[in-house]
Please model this.
Amino acid sequence: MSPVLALLDRETWTSLEAAHAARVDVVTAGYLSRRDRGVPHPVEDFLFRYYSVTPSRLRRWHPGPGVRLEGPKALERASWRHYRAAGEVVELDVESFVAARGRAVDFVRRLLEATVSRPARLGCFGLHEWAMVYRAGEGGVRHEQVPLRLGQAGTDEVVERHQIACSHFDAFRFFTPDAVSRNVLQPTREAQVELEQPGCLHAGMDTYKWATKLSPLVPSDLTMDCFDLAMEIRLLDMQASPYDLSGHDVEPVPIETAAGKAAYVERQREFAQRSNVLRRRLLTVLDATR
Model:
């Protein structure tokens, strides 16, 4: 299934492993510090809480299919799930992975192929976050530690003046009851492959989701590239949201204005292009399972 692409000696692969751990440590330090102090962050904690990937799990380095690791230390990995010893080297056991995760591989491949084949739709303006608090009332706001930038009445007015066109089920499922009927689409889990498109910020963040769901098949450098993009997208997602995040030094992208809409679309277009690059890289990894 997976041809040998590289044979890495102990010095080479342990250096790559250490560089990966250092990369993870940099991007997780803030979250770990806040977690220990019980101080949440409405923007930066999302990737750890929503996607449920712990820093320690993220820190574990995986070379991906077709890479063989030499040395006694590498043999310790033979006991890891979906790894195997091949003489004096250790490699990912692609056959074992496919036997256990074949349905997930097939689903992610279909989803990524469908998404990357479609043009990006850029007119949603991040209104999914507004729909999540539309007419929420007291106690209904998802991020209760931060206020609404325009207040509840102002937030509701923005929703009512715009057409909502959210295509992503995992955003749509958090809409308030009054917002559901305002969406021009009614996404379902079953229709995800039919509706996913690269302009969706949540679909872009989900490149990280699929990379982690397919661990250890996906090389750790690709997983971290997906993480980095997801964190950038998350920032825009919350900048364009109805929340007042000035207390966290987050400047708003006021999508209720023409200038805010233009700024949002410009960054959304860039993210669509960058997320498609990652989707193609993920699909290349999935080719190793055929």
